Amino acid sequence: MTDIVTIKKEPIELFKVIKIANWVGGGGEAKFVVSEGLVELNGEVETRKAKKVYNGDVVTFQEMSVKVELETPAE
């Protein structure tokens, strides 16, 4: 099952998505798991902590996945 992470603007840095998903305790830990190659972006291992993530991207960590969705402004 893939959960949704809603962001207000894009791009967002990969480590921030991991923090928002509550997969780690903080930003330092998020940067560590990315740099260790434990995170996938759209099915590919990603080791760049500040890799830009956009609407529709899927981030996976330890068999958990989230899809990034851009918040649509209320009209």
From TrEMBL:
Keyword tags: RNA-binding
Pfam family, one: S4_2
UniProt keyword RNA-binding, yes or no: yes
Superkingdom to which the source organism belongs: Bacteria
TM stretches of this protein: none
CDD domains: S4
Protein name (Swiss-Prot/TrEMBL): RNA-binding protein
